[in-house]
Amino acid sequence: MLKERIEEVTRANQAFYEAFESLDVAQMDRLWAHQEYVTCVHPGWALRVGWPAVRDSWVLIFNNTFSMQFELTEMQIQVAGDLAWVICTENITARQSADEKQESQVLATNLYERVGEEWKIIHHHGSPVMR
Q1: What's the sign of the alpha-carbon dihedral 62, 66, 69, 75?
Q2: Through-space distance between the first and last CA atoms of the chain, rounded to whole angstroms
Q3: What's the CATH code of the domain at 66?
Q4: What is the DSSP letter of 75?
Q5: Residue 97 pLDDT
Q6: Residue 72: strand pairing partners
Q7: Which residues of the chain have pLDDT under 50?
Q8: Which of 77, 83, 79 lies closest to 113 in space, CA to CA?
Q9: Nearest of 83, 72, 67 to residue 23 by alpha carbon
Q10: Parallel, antiparallel, or unpaired: how do β-strands 39-41 and 118-128 relate?
């Protein structure tokens, strides 16, 4: 049972990063719980609380990004009942324009809640890793 839940959360987390890479807010919409208690902290940003504020943060990022790719490393996944968390290092290659490439590392924590048969993200926190 625990192994199956970890596999489900692994797939949910993969879908989160696929939505992130797609820069498609509709795809991101499907993955988040649309609740007042969801939270998000992007690197260098203030805390966003509640689905409307969290969604707006994704719209801002997606509208100002040309492309983004992730390679996840140091991934740890834990499940406890209907909650799960993923801790990983995001190795990011991003472009603000076609010829402006940036590479960075972010230490991320993603918290998921099981809603029915689906794992919905309820918290994302990213902190920059200084090289």
Answers
A1: negative
A2: 39
A3: 3.10.450.50
A4: E
A5: 79
A6: 90
A7: none
A8: 83
A9: 67
A10: parallel
